[in-house]
Amino acid sequence: MARRRKHRTHLKGGVASNPGSAEGVPKSFVIKHGQVGSSLAQLVRDVRKVMEPNTASRLRERARNKLRDFLTMAPALGVTHLLAFTLTDVAPSLRIVRLSAGPTLSFRVERYSLTKDIINASRRARSMSTVEYLSPPLLVLASFPPPSPTTPPHLTLMMKTFQSMFPPLSPHTLSLSSARRVVLVHYNADRGTVDFRHYLITVKPYGVSKRIRRILEGAPAKSSTAHSHTGTLDLGNEKDVADFLLRKKGEPGPSSDGYESAASSASSVAGDDADAVSLADDYVGRNNKKGTKRAVKLDEIGPRMELRLIKIVEGVPGKEGGVLYHEFVKKTKAEIRAQKAEHAAKEKLRQQRREEQEKNVQRKKMAQEAKKGKKAGEERDEEDVSEDEGADGSDHGEEMASGEEEDYSDGEGGDEEGDWDEDEMISEGEESDEESGSESEDEAPRPPPKKLKTKSKR
User: Cα separation of 92 and 162, whole Å?
Assistant: First the structure.
C-alpha cells in the first residue's frame, strides 16, 4: 500500500500560497526585557498577534538574555525591526529599533488596553480564530503632516518607521480576501501622542434590517439556542415568520422583554451610502460575491496604546550615535556640533581598536602556524636520526656477530691444550693452593663456558 502523503495546513498564508513572496517583507521581534509585570507581558503577546504572520510568535525570553543577544541574532534570521518593551519608574517604555544600523525610537506608553479588555467591553463580542492572522494587516497612517521643509523632521522619521514595519501595499497584486485586519496609527497634534489601534474588517449586507440580516447570516455566535452551532435561526417560538420580520420596534416578542436599546435601533440598518461598496472580488463570508453591494465595518479587537515619542538616537542600543531628537532636552547648535565631534572621536577610537585587535589576531595566528611548522620539522629530524641510528646499529651488530664467529672458529681449529680433560691427574700445585687459604675449598667447580650460538653468514 502506498504511503499517504501529508499535506501541511499549518503554514503561514503568504508563504504557503506563494513561497517567493516572503522575500523583502519586513520581519520583527517583539520582546520584553527586565522585570515586567503580567499585564505588560500580556501586552507583548497581543502586539505579537498584531504583527503576525511576519513575527516570531513563540519567541521565549529568558532571564539571562540581554538585549544585545537579540540584536546579534536578528540579522541572521532576516529580522528588520525589534520592538522591546520594558518597565521604568515612570511608565512602560517601548523601543523600536531599525536593524541593523538604526535609528532607535524610544516611546513612553502613556496608556494601554489589552485585547481581552477591548473584547469584553465591546457590545458585539467576536470569537477570533487563526484565519484572520494568516495575512499581514493593512496600515493606515492618519493626521501625520505631509513631508515638507516646514515639517518637523522627527515626525517624518516616525511616520516612515511605522510605515517600514508592515509590508508595502500593492493594490494591483493584493488579493481582496487577504485584507482581514487594519492597523491605525493616528497622530494627535494637540497632545503630541500617537494612538495605536487594531481593527478587524467585517462585511455585512447593505440596506437590510437587523432581523433580515440575522436570517441571511445565520444565528449569532453568542446565541445559546440548540441550533446555534448549525448557523440557522431558531424560530420555534414564533407562530409565523412574518411575526419575526414585521414586528415593530419595541414590540415584545416571545423571548424578549420589549425593550430595544438606541444602539441596536441605530444598527438596524447596516450602513449608509458612505459605507456601501461594491466588492471587486469574492470576499470571505456568506454571499459576499464579486459585484455585490456590501457595508464595510471595522470592529476593534485590540490592543490599544497611546505612545509619546521621547527620543530618537542614531544606531542601535550599545552602539548609539548622535541624538536626533529629544522631547525634554534641547541643545544649541554649538552643543550639537560638540556632541557630533565627540561621537566622531569615539568612532575613530573604536575603529583603531578594532584594527589593532585584527592585527593582534593575525600576528597570533602566524606565530601559532610558525610554531606548528617548527614542531613538525623537529619531529621529522628526530625520525631521520632514529632511522640512521637503527641502520648503524644493525651494521655494527652484524660485524660483532661475524667477529665472534671467527674467534670461536679459531679456538676450535687451534691448540687443544685449553680443553677440559677429566682423566688428567691433579698436579702438586694443588697442595700449595690448599695452604694459601680455605676460600678456594668452599668454591664449587665452575662449568666450562658455553659456546655462543651465532648465525654464520651464508
Answer: 19
